Amino acid sequence: MKLSKTITTHEDVICLHGTIKKFGRVFTFNVYYVDGLLIDTGPMCVKDTVVEFAKEVQPKQIILTHFHEDHSGNADTLSKLFNIPIRTSSLTADLLKTSPTIPLYRRLIWGKELKAIEGDIVEHSISTDKYQFSIVKTPGHSIDHICLVNEVNGWLFSGDLFLGKRLLYGMKGESIPQLYHSVSNILSYDFDTVFCGHAGIVGHGHEALKAKQSFLQKLIQDTTSLYNRGWSEEKITKRLLSRQSAIQLFSGGEMAPKHLIHSIIKSISSKKSIQTN
Ligand SMILES: [Zn+2]
Predict the structure, then answer these.
(1) pLDDT by residue (tens digit) across 50-67?
(2) How many whole angstroms from 171 Cα to the centroid of ligand 1?
């Protein structure tokens, strides 16, 4: 594994950005710090780097955007080292109260066992000495996903809500219709800078998320119209998300374009069955 890191700042926010080269592929992570608050903790395989960063900034509390191990991986270590609470949504707390089972490919990328943690549940907002953040539930990428918004400064800590303007493959269990609703909901807030879990600091972030919303809307519309014409899930995936990615093979199918299309079709079918019942 080859790791390179950079530390950047945007106003009062400090960002530890890391790039990991493993198995000939590049993976990224970001840990953010603002006024005593650490937002996400990076994957287990970069524990020393994250601890070193945390020793510099001396966090007073941690918040997790969702339970995935590349965000929660060092929460236990940091919480014990600094004797500080780990704030989470109630769903994240539930998912992490026992050590979750992680698919093999994700263990290979991000590190081994994820330790169970006790989340200190926050529902609507979280404060630091200087700032207040609204907590917005944004399921889709995962069921427990939350974002932090501070409209006064125009900041959105978006976890894995954004990632990029397009999405070519998804994880098993990811829901595109839910993600579309979450992105639409977050766009009703006033922000300009997006602090993304993987893409880093994204300027003109509101516009970038608007582009993501349009992409998701079109994917849902196109899938729906092909499905209504009798196309199979496989054929729709080939037509709309044809680019095959190496990650699909590497993950043994856990990460693939078909999961995105599947989640849309599942939502169409469940709506249809509600209508006919
Ligand atoms: Zn994630």
Answers:
(1) 999 999 999 999 999 999
(2) 9
